[in-house]
Each structure stands twice: as structure tokens, then as C-alpha cells.
Amino acid sequence: MRRMAEEPRTTRIQREVVQLILDRGLRAGAPLPTEAELMDALGASRNSVREALKALQALDIVDIRHGYGTYVGQASLTPLVDGLTFRTLARQDDDAGALAEILQVREVLEEGLIRRVAATLTEAELDGIEAVVDRMEKAGRAARPFAELDRQFHELLYAPLGNALVPQLLAAFWTVFRRVAGARGWTDDPSPDVTVRRHRDIVTALRARDVEGAQRAMAVHFRGIEARAAQESRGVG
Fold this sequence. Notes:
Blueprint: H1 2-6, H2 9-23, H3 35-42, H4 46-58, E1 62-65, E2 69-72, H5 78-90, H6 95-118, H7 123-141, H8 147-158, H9 165-184, H10 192-207, H11 211-236
Antiparallel strand pairs: 1-2
């Protein structure tokens, strides 16, 4: 009871608004009650309700459309991306270390996922993934960046799992990496042929239904990204 009594008013109202959304089964895009209705339902002042809604907007839980009303947000991972980007950039004394932490989390995620998807990928799906690698190789030979193709490779790889959260998490980590790279002025992949080969090794292992080999190939891929991040950080330090 003491903890509840000490809970900041705005925090309490945020929690109650979230509970209201859940209790009413409101989906993304659905209109929320008006300010006056929330004040009455929650027994709160106008300022307290507004502060709570602004805080929830920052979390993408609500969407305030001035002149139109307040709606249920998409609950995207944008706040996570913004927080991780700031956390990484704020550690100016150790860019490589901060980014390595993010890469390690993504590596653990993908090494686990690839074990799950290895047994379910069809030859047609593998053909589609390998086609992306072919496009990466073509772009590399033409000295064109292929970061988006790299992202597409990983999205296609786990699409058969049918888990909507997976592409969102991968996109979040991907965006953080690209934002940090852009902010630090890092160059495009200095060895595109190596990057292409590492992606092709993953596909080759999957075609052979070699789960352990696919997992090792994914680990090698991430070791390469980590090494590059460390090299870039030393270059700009």
C-alpha cells in the first residue's frame, strides 16, 4: 500500500489509461475517450490527464492528433530504437563497446531463430533468399552500397516463422546500427565480397539442412560486423 501511495500521480494515470485501453479491447487507431471523459473516469485533473497522455504518446501507446482527438497508438518499437541510439551515441569514449553490446543481443536472437527456421524453410523460400544475395553481389561488384538488401536478407530468412515481433526487433537493431554509423561518419562496407560470401555461406548451410553449420555461419557473420565496428571506431577516435 505504501508503494501505491508514493506512486507519482502522472504514472498512476498512465497506468490507468493503459488499463482502460486493455479493458475495452481498443485496437491501434481506435479513438480514446475525450479528455473530459478521462477526467471523469479516472478522477483526475485536466493537467494530470494531459501529462499522462503526452508521456504515453512518447511510448507510442497513444497518438494525439491535435484538432481530431486521441487514439490508441501502434505500440511500435520506436521508443526502444530512440533509447538504444542515444545510449550508444552517449558512450563516446567506447563506441565499439556500446555497439558490440547491441550486436551481441541481435546475434543471440538470430542464432536461436535460425535453428527454428532451418527445418521449415522450403526450397522456394531459400531461392528467394539466395536471390537477395545475388543482388548483393551484383551491387558490390558495381561499388554500390547494399545495406537495404542486407536487411531484406535477414527479414526473409525468418519470415516463415510467422512471428510478427521478430521483424520488428530486427528492424529496431538494424536502425540503431545505421543511425550510429551515420552519426559517426562510418564508411560503407569496406569488403563487400566478404560480406556477400558470409551471407551465401548461411544459405548454403540451410540448403544442406545443416543447422549447426548455419548457426556457425551466422556467428561468423556477426563477428565480422563487430570487427568492422571496432575498426571504424578506432579510425574516428
